[in-house]
Amino acid sequence: MNAQTRTEMRELSYAEAIREAMDIALASDDRVILMGEDIGVYGGAFQVTGDLVEKYGTDRVMDTPISELGGAGVAVGAALTGLKPIFEFQFSDFAALAMEQIVNQAAKVRYMLGGSVSVPLVMRFPAGSGTGAAAQHSQSIEAWLGHVPGLKVVQPSTPEDVKGMLLAALEDPDPVMIFEHKILYKMKGHVPEGHYTTPIGKAAIRRAGKDLTIVATSLMVHKALAAAETLGPEGIDVEVIDLRTIRPMDRETVLASVRKTGRLICVYEGVKTLGVGAEISAMVAESDAFDFLDAPIVRLGGAECPIPYNPELEKAVVPQVPDILDAARNLAEGRI
Amino acid sequence: MPIEVIMPKVDMDMAKGKIVTWHVSEGDTVTKGEPLFDIETDKAAMEVEAADSGILHHAVPEGTDVPIGKPVAWLYAEGEEVGDPPAGLAPAEPDAPAVKDDPAPRADAPRPGATRREPDAGEKQRATPRARALARDGGVDIDAIAGTGPRGRVQAGDVAALLDRGPAQLGAATFRAETGPLSVTRSKGGTGTPVVMIHGFASDATSWAPLEAHLKHRPVIRIDLPGHGKSPKLKVASFAALLQEVRRTFDDLNLDQAHLIGHSLGGALALGIADTRARGIASLTLIAPAGLGPDIDGAALSGICRASRAESLGPWLRRLVADEDIITDSYVRLAMAGRSDPNLRAAQSAMADTLFPDGVQAVDLRAALDRLTPPARIIWGKRDAIIPWRHALRAPGRVALHLFDGIGHMPQIECAEEVGVLLRSQI
Amino acid sequence: MADAATDTNTPYAIRTYSPQRLKDALHKMFLIRKFEEGAEDSYTRGLIHGTMHLSIGQEASAVGSCMSLSDEDKITSTHRGHGHCVAKDADLGKMFAEFFGKETGYCKGRGGSMHIADPSRGNLGANGIVGGGLPIAVGAALSAKRLGTGAVTVCFFGDGANNEGAFHESLNMAAVWKLPVVFVCENNRYGMSTSTARSTAVKQIAERAAAYSMPGVTVDGNDFSAVTEAVDAAVARARRGEGPSLVENMTYRWRGHSKSDRNRYRTKEEIAEWMERDPIVAMSKLLVDHKILTEAEVGALEEDAARIIREAIDFAAASPDPKIEEATRDVYTEGAAA
Ligand SMILES: Cc1ncc(C[n+]2csc(CCOP(=O)(O)OP(=O)(O)O)c2C)c(N)n1
Ligand SMILES: [Mg+2]
User: Fold this and answer.
1) What is the SS3 assignment for B29?
2) How many CB pairs (< 8 A) connect A and B?
3) By CB count within 10 A, which of A182, A294, B166, B302 is most buried?
């Protein structure tokens, strides 16, 4: 086996891929620092930073006090003035405490100052349900931030992408918010070695198909792919698009697929109403791809409630593979 | 207080009229006596002048039917505040079906205020966007398709199945529709009042060449009909829509005065234009015009449209003239070369189907002929095998008749010299 | 022999509370310990999905801080809140049922360990957000003052929470408006892995009180009597309308922060040392020393607590799950005017 194939075979978990990206960044650029709660000796609540503190020390892998607003704001200030902070929220839910600095400062300062400054800030948000952590530790709030001009918001779904998008985010002069589904952390996949970037703002076609387009984000990409595997033998050929970035959204990839299949399902974990799926649907409805729709658009999103604790309820309030199967069959067989 | 503009009663038994075109845009000023809008009734089309001066607001969308006496817009004074439309404005789409007992949002519900090229399309039939697009491109009437989707929705498959049944089933209805303005060509030289020429069905602007030789002293402007010559293959839903398209082209020429000449279908269109643009017409010449009676040789029309080779085109072309010898083989080959695009032929088939269904003229312009005010003449060959020359006898006394013995449907070619001399005396 | 009620050499709790109340207090401390152990055991058996934050080692702080509270008085609690619930007389069966995600639980299976609340006993609930309960406690105190209920709010929070803006904003408003609230910091030396030395500019959280012009004291949080003495005084001050206080109970959590803690930020020795200072052992000794209980009676109390917990677990295990169709119930008030 030569070196090339070994590289191709190499598998890392999603968390390891993030760590490797941060490791590369810390090693190659002195201006990069990590900030967050318990990211040092504890290794991060989800063991993403791991042992980086041993390699780079507490000056560059900084445990903050439990001070989300202040911590995020310090990162904004540091980004404004020469550092490149990667700020980890312990859970994306706690970003609610830091909204002021994210939304009013990080997102707007460049614009407010007439383009004379920039905020090269990366924020990481462990997100989503499925861990039994209930209403305040399970949310999918990416659409909140997706609503803010000035931010870029990504939701990588694979180890390879999360590494590439984190490195791309570090090269981006503007604030990039990375939503990482907690369930994905342990997922393994091929990750190229060394430095590479995965473009922000570009969706990926994970599976080509001709009958039906599913645009999915984050963990839902995997559920959509699982559903597509079941549907194939039934004669329903599904195209699965991993949106990857929700702001700016990759219009062309989505529209081209809809023009091809004429049927669209949006699958995302955030609350269905006023969420990512609403934007995808509107984008299609407002475009020429509308002419190619041969059935109503279907959105599968989170139920209109906080994430419940009971595991059965918790599963029931976010889209699952059977929900996608039902929707796809109904669409393909002309029941909706 | 704003002044209301109403739908005028212009005909004895007119109950409502359709706003075809506004000549003044919302928010623009119009002066009393200027053309304000065109209407169309069951019988006729005409231009309505502004009865007062003011700034136009709350104009009902083009394509709307409005009962006579009901306001179609309001004229405001300079500086007068424009709020909601004063009460009594005709509903935007009075024919829109009421939505009943359907709790689910209707994707196809009428959109208030939306202006469309075909105001009827989309409001009667439940259909997906893709089905509509397919039907539009295929020249198929979506309203005529039975949908197999939920709640009877027409889906792409329904349209595709229909299209797959082939041209035989579809008749003349299938072609790839295009969009864009009609082709206008102009002669070099000439002075004074220009001559505007509108050719007949299945012909094109080049057919005027023999006649033009006699009109070189005037600028000549030729309009290609949709689906003919260099014009785009528009979907033509009705004669009214066709007239609207050609009239828009005529309006865009921006001529103070014009001599208008039309042949056959072009004659009907010229008459329709003269009906609503009477003041701009210096003279009107109708050569074997359509629109004055029901009869027409449908077989010849569809034969020409169908012909895909010179061999099948020749016999039909010879039917157009009295002396078959003038239609030489090389003439036929040339004509076929101009018709080699199957989509052009399909577009013309579709148009024939719309305007002359089952070999009958669906266009009746006799009332317009009666109303005609500009100097006008009708020229016809007494051996016309396509449209009977006797239709000319419907003309009122003001209209001059020139009936040629031994001439068929194409006097402008068959006896170009005589027709030219005739025209030159007045143009 | 001097009268225990007046002898200042006698611990405050012995002087202040009846033998029955002291016995009840020890019983509650046993209940908390057994509850946490039962929770841990259930987790190990796979009966609980999600994580939990155990308060083993902190029982004296929870029970001692609630001694002078009635059902009218309120508490706000934290992610490490099981002890506070028990101290505020929660039903153990309903607590376990919640832990198991059952319809019979305090939150009908919707909230889980981190959100147990019992408004009927004045327990406004645990909180998943560090510092989340602080402003809410001030709000409850504002209600009590405006409505004249005479109620006091005890606001539990961890040392980690003292660095949230909400902490500072809350103390300031409580002081400015002289509200009847007692801020009880359970300083167990760490917020997750981060020690107060690494996170907090002052040595003791109680020093923060000075910035907001309120009394601040630090006590041995594993000493039941010391806790009651400090908190009772603060509650009494609040009831007199003199405003808020800050009490800092120095204590220690024996277990990891949550089930995923690898204890890399502290030593085994440190943990062992604190386990030597078991607040339940200390309380038992206090009551035995003062002849309120015999060793055997202490044993019986522990036994009884274990039995109650077993029954609570049985109740929870046998309880029905919530209905899937009702997942979106209680997002809004039913029948409320739109
Ligand atoms: C706003 C917020 N930030 C972070 C967390 C994650 N978290 C939960 S508990 C905890 C430590 C809290 O420390 P402390 O207040 O001292 O309470 P202890 O766990 O020691 O009882 C952290 C960081 C959270 N739940 N909420
Ligand atoms: Mg702590």
Assistant:
1) strand
2) 31
3) A294
Per-residue pLDDT of chain B (427 residues; tens, 9 = 90+): 888 888 887 777 777 888 888 888 888 899 888 889 888 877 777 788 888 899 999 999 888 888 888 889 999 998 888 888 776 554 444 333 333 333 333 333 333 332 323 333 333 578 999 998 888 888 888 877 888 888 888 999 888 888 876 544 444 446 777 888 999 999 888 999 999 999 999 999 988 988 998 999 999 999 999 999 999 998 888 888 899 899 999 999 999 999 999 999 999 999 999 998 988 999 999 999 999 988 898 888 878 887 777 888 888 888 899 998 888 888 888 888 788 777 788 888 888 888 888 788 888 898 889 888 899 999 999 999 999 999 999 899 999 999 999 999 999 999 999 999 989 888 8
Q: Which atom of ligand 1 is nearest to the CA of C58?
A: 21
Catalytic (active-site) positions of A: 68, 137
- Strand B3-6 with B16-22, pairing: unpaired
Domain topology for B3-89:
OB fold (Dihydrolipoamide Acetyltransferase, E2P) (2.40.50)
Q: The CATH number of the domain where A173 resides is what?
A: 3.40.50.970
Considering the domain architecture, whether residues A255 and A292 belong to the same structural domain is answered as: yes
CA distance A181 to A218: 7
The CATH superfamily of B184-424 is Alpha/Beta hydrolase fold, catalytic domain (3.40.50.1820)
Residue closest by Cα to atom 3 of ligand 1: C130
| Ligand 1 neighbourhood includes A37 CB (under 6 angstroms) | yes
Q: Are residues A34 and A122 in the same domain?
A: yes
pTM across the whole model: 0.69
Chain centroid to CA A284: how far? Answer: 21
**C contacts of A43 (beta carbons < 8 Å):** 262, 264
Distance C129 CA to ligand 1 centre (A): 7
Q: For residue A325, give both structure tokens.
A: 């199967």
Q: Is the CB of C58 under 6 A from ligand 1?
A: no
For tokens 């393909």, the residue is: A332
Residues with CB under 5 A from ligand 2 (ion): C 158-160, 188, 191
Query: With touching defined as 3+ CB pairs under 8 A, do chains C and B touch?
Result: no
State which residues of chain C have pLDDT below 70.
1-7, 336-338
- DSSP code at position A46: T
Rounded to an integer, what distance in angstroms lies between the CA atom of residue A39 and that of residue B381? Answer: 97
Round to whole Å and give the CA distance between B413 and A282.
57
Say whether B163 sits in a helix, a strand or coil.
Answer: helix
Q: Do residue A43 and residue A169 come from a single domain?
A: yes
Q: Which of A161, A190, A219 is the last residue of a domain?
A: A190
| C-beta neighbour count of B359 within 10 angstroms | 15
Order across the sheet with B54-57: list the strands.
Answer: B3-6, B71-76, B54-57, B29-30
CA-CA distance, A287 to A281, in Å (whole number)?
A: 10
Chains B and A touch (3+ CB pairs under 8 A): yes
Domain ranges of chain B: 3-89, 110-164, 184-424
Three-state DSSP at B20 gives strand
What are the residue ranges spanned by the domains of chain C? 13-318
Q: Say if C48 is an interface residue toward chain A (CB within 8 Å).
A: yes
Cα C159 from Cα A66, distance rounded (Å):
10
What 3-state DSSP class applies to A176?
A: strand
How does DSSP classify residue C111?
Answer: S
Instruction: Write down the architecture of domain B110-164 according to CATH.
Output: Irregular (4.10)
Record the tokens describing residue B188, joined without a space. 């070099």
Q: Which residues contact A334 (CB under 8 A, 6 or more apart)?
A: A295, B148, B149, B150, B155
User: How many CA atoms within 13 Å lie on the side-chain side of C241?
Assistant: 5
- Look-up: residue for tokens 């952390």? A185
Q: Which CATH superfamily is domain C13-318 in?
A: Thiamin diphosphate (ThDP)-binding fold, Pyr/PP domains (3.40.50.970)
